[in-house]
Amino acid sequence: MAFPELRKRYWGRRFCARGYFSTTSGNVTDDIILQYLELHAKRDATGVSR
Predict the structure, then answer these.
(1) DSSP per-residue codes, 4-38
(2) 11: exposed, middle or buried (C-beta count within 10 Å: 0-12, 13-18, 19+)?
């Protein structure tokens, strides 16, 4: 409602999508991040939370 020009431009299409984003990983290794992503990919594919 706040941006009617976007509604007109993106009518019938999705403007936002569900996703995850992290700008920093702090003291976490790349392996830990990959494990996290793989776990969530499996959960999303099965629809089951583990």
Answers:
(1) HHHHHHTTTS-S-------S--TT--HHHHHHHHH
(2) exposed
Distance CA(46)–CA(43), nearest Å, equals 5
DSSP assignment letter at 47: T
Say how many C-beta atoms besides its own lie within 10 A of residue 36's C-beta: 14
Would you say residue 30 has pLDDT above 80? Answer: yes
pLDDT value at residue 50: 47
Task: Please give the model's pTM, rounded to 2 decimal places.
Answer: 0.40
